[in-house]
């Protein structure tokens, strides 16, 4: 596990160097179609680098990446251990010249992340974790927030997730924030800079596998939006959204999402990007 974590850290440096060459440099852009969004030549070159470096070092591991073979290729399911990678998480931010994009890499064994790195090269932020080893930011241990009450919480969440139909148990008080990379949002919960994060939409494995381990190793509870454990490298490589927070706050937010009693009225105080 520690050797795999060192491998991910080394590979991330090379990925960041490639991304930096294309950042604010008019990288070529394509639309992937089918509502999948854009991809750039930077995404593809970072993906090629990571696949070459990681698979050469661990030829017995499976491979899953947003920018590689289609998910209908299920050879990865025959592997006990699989790399799950998002070459650039936050491609739209990258295209717009925003620095909040990330390289997200996880080693997943029997559906559970065991080593993970989320690297933001333009912000010089390296989040890392190993199962049972804790989580770090730039080599320094990090810990999730201990805030308990929703009305005291700084929550990373997109505005559509705050529509009333998603909160059958009542919408809690919270202060809303946003960051463009889903992996970064989860890692920020591990860092303790924010108290919770929520995404209602189904989340692809490559967006959340790495940061889910970082947040949980830092002490956060990380589940899908209905409170079930996250599982990775299945035929359908998605989970039903993500909810991450310290234990008491996670429970209170989950009450609102699942329809158990929570009667606070909506009072969403929004900061950050839409």
Strand tally: 17
The helix-strand sequence is HEEHEEHEEEEEEEHEEHEEEHE
Which strand order does the major sheet show? 3-4-5-6-7-8-9
Could you report the average pLDDT, rounded to the nearest whole number? 91
> What portion of residues belong to β-strands?
25-35%
- Quaternary structure type: single chain
Q: Count of helical segments? A: 6
* Number of individual domains: 2
Measure the end-to-end span.
38 Å
Annotated CATH architecture of the largest domain? 2-Layer Sandwich
Kindly provide the name of the CATH class of the largest domain: Alpha Beta
Q: What is the overall silhouette?
A: globular
Structural class: alpha+beta
**CATH-level-4 superfamily name of the largest domain:** Fructose-1,6-Bisphosphatase, subunit A, domain 1
The low-confidence parts are: 261-274
Percent helix, as a range, is: 25-40%
CATH topology of the largest domain: Fructose-1,6-Bisphosphatase, Chain A, domain 1
């Amino acid at each position: 596990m520690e050797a795999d974590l060192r491998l991910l850290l080394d590979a991330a440096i090379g990925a960041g160097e490639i991304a930096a060459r294309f950042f604010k440099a008019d990288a070529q852009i394509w639309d992937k179609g089918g509502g999948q969004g854009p991809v750039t030549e930077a995404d593809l070159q970072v993906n090629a680098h990571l696949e070459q470096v990681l698979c050469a070092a661990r030829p017995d591991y499976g491979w899953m990446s947003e920018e590689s073979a289609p998910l209908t290729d299920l050879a990865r399911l025959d592997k006990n251990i699989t790399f799950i990678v998002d070459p650039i998480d936050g491609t739209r931010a990258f295209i717009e010249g925003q620095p909040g994009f990330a390289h997200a890499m996880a080693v997943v064994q029997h559906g559970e992340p065991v080593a993970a790195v989320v690297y933001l090269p333009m912000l010089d932020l390296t989040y890392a974790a190993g199962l049972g080893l804790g989580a770090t930011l730039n080599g320094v241990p990090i810990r999730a927030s201990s805030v308990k009450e929703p009305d005291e919480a700084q929550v990373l969440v997109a505005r559509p997730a705050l529509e009333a139909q998603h909160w059958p148990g009542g919408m809690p008080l919270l202060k809303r924030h946003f960051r463009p990379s889903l992996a970064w949002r989860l890692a920020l919960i591990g860092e303790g800079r924010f108290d919770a994060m929520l995404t209602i939409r189904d989340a692809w494995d490559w967006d959340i596998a790495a940061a889910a381990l970082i947040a949980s190793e830092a002490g956060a509870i990380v589940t899908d939006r209905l409170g079930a454990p996250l599982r990775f490298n299945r035929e359908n490589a998605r989970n039903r959204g993500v909810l991450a927070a310290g234990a008491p706050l996670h429970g209170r937010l989950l009450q609102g999402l699942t329809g158990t009693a929570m009667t606070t009225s909506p009072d969403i105080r929004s900061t950050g990007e839409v």
